[in-house]
Structure formats: C-alpha cells, structure tokens
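Render this sequence as a predicted structure.
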Amino acid sequence: MKRWMLWTGLAALLALTVVKLAVNKRTVAERVYRHDKNAPVHVTVEAALLGGAGQGPRYGGTVVPLREGRVMAEVPGRVLRVAVREGQQVRKGDLIAQLDGELLRLQHESAQVQVAALEKDQARYRVLASADAVQGIQLERTEQALQTARIQLANITEQLGRTTIRAPFDGEVTQLLAEEGTVVGPSMPVAMLSDPRELEVLLHVSEVDVVRFQQGQAVQVTLGDLADPVKGTVHSIGRRGDVANRFPVRIELPADPRIVAGLSATVEPPSGTAADQVTIPARALLGSSIAPEVYVVRDSTARRTPIVAAAAGNGRLAVAQGLKAGELVVTSGAVSLRDGARVTYR
C-alpha cells in the first residue's frame, strides 16, 4: 500500500514538472523577438531635384610643383657628408651628398695599373712581332686584353664620379631622406627636390567630368585660406585614367608669393551651372565614390540603384546618370534596408 502511494506521488510530481517546463518554454518563446521580413521599414526620403548644388560643379585638388623629383643614389656607399639642409635653395650641379668611394678608388688604381702593364706588353709584342720573334696571335690577345681593361677602367671611373650626388635642377630641398653615416644603395632616395617658382593645381576628376575641361581654358581657383580666388589655365588633361576611372587635370597658376606647394585648391570651370543637373542630398549616398549607389523608393519598395556622381556642393550631390528629377531617395534609415524591402516614409 505504501509502495503504491509512493509511486503515485512520484508520477504526479513528474507530471507537474513536465507541465511547468512546457509553460515556461511557451512563455520564453512568446517573449523572443522575431523579425518580420515582410514588415515595412520606416525611412526618410527626399526627392531628386534639378539644380541646387551651387553655382556650378567644383573640384578639389592640391597645389604641387611643376617640377619635382627625388635625388637618387646611383652607386652603393656610406654617406660621408650631407651638404644641404631642408628648405635650402640649390642650383643645378650643387653638391647634395658625398658617398664613401674608397673601395671604388682602390679598384680604379688597380685598373690603371693593369692598363699601364698591358700597354707596355702591347708595345713590346709589336716590336717582337715585326721581327717575327713572337707569333701574331700573342699580340692580338694582348690588344684584346688591353681593350677590356680600358673598358673596365672607364666603368669604374664613371661609378667613382657618381659617389658625388649633385642637384639635377634648380630648386628647393623639401626633404632629406639620408643622414651622415647611413648606407645607401642604387636607386635609394637621398633628398626630395622641387622648384617652387612654378606651381600648378593637380585634380583627379571622373570620366564624366573630364569633358568639362579644355586645354587653354581659364578657370577660377580658390586656394586654402586666401580670400580672393585666382585665375588659372588648364594646360594638361590626362588621357589615361587610374583604377577609379579618374583622369588627371593640371592647371597652371600665376606667380604669387602667397601660393605655396601643398595648399588645398577648389577649381570651378566657367561652363555649365548645376541648374540643369539632377541633384540629391549628399547623405543619401551609399558605399564609396568609386561605385556610388542610393536607395530609390518606387511603389513603397526600396531599390538599390547605382549612379554616376558628377560633382558636389552645398551639401548636395550632382548625378550624371541613374536618377531622374522627382524620384525619391532614402536619406535616413538605409542601415535597416535591403534591396526590395517594403518601406513607409515621410
């Protein structure tokens, strides 16, 4: 009797535990958030407009020297002396650095001794060959060896001369890249040299915008913190783009002591205002400038759409291809979107 009551109690306890676990599981499942993929996402949109990007497209660039380059070491050696300092003006042919050429000098002396000895052998064999005292082949071999030795001597002489590093053109030492005691090798830079007398603005513009520039065209250039813009002249347009399909445009600047290399520049071509261009808020842009995209809302559905950006200004982006005036672009809430998602908007 007691055993029957014990088993009955255990069965009731087990049933109660199973019921309790089932209730807890259902409660937890009800509390877990399940995202409804079909639920619309609330976003903020704005319509694409004609114009609104300012007076015209503007392009950012940098003032760079027309003539600039690295002064390179052409032979290996230890730097014995650096004859210039950063910011110093130099003329073409001025000493930049002197390398240790002791090993080359020893090789030069050895080559001179070898040439002198072969010249004596050549003179002696000529006398003996004319008297048929030696075979002519010995004279020929001596002359060939003398020619080889002279070539080696000329080669060492040339290398010895290159231990003296000189300025290749007039300019300013903008950066020293080697110090006394350092060891340099061939093609290692020793200094950076630029000519500050002739400056230009370097732009990199898209394949759509490069047609706005013409060689010899006058453009307006705003430089750094200078209050008054200056007039520049387009003197070079690259015909080969980089990996981002941007083309280099170089703009010649007038002589002005206030203009120095490194200044930021904003260039505005005189032709074509933004009045006839479709523009959108810059914050609607997705991804990078290499492959720009936006979310366009059509029939309450967000579509990820690639565009071709032309220029930016006043917080808006001019669009050359991909959008029409009046289309709605998402300006806020895009982080929760996917292509084809349903949206509600205001």
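Summary. DSSP finds three helices and 23 strands in the chain. Residues 41-57+274-345 form a domain with the conserved putative lor/sdh protein from methanococcus maripaludis s2 fold fold (CATH 2.40.420.20).
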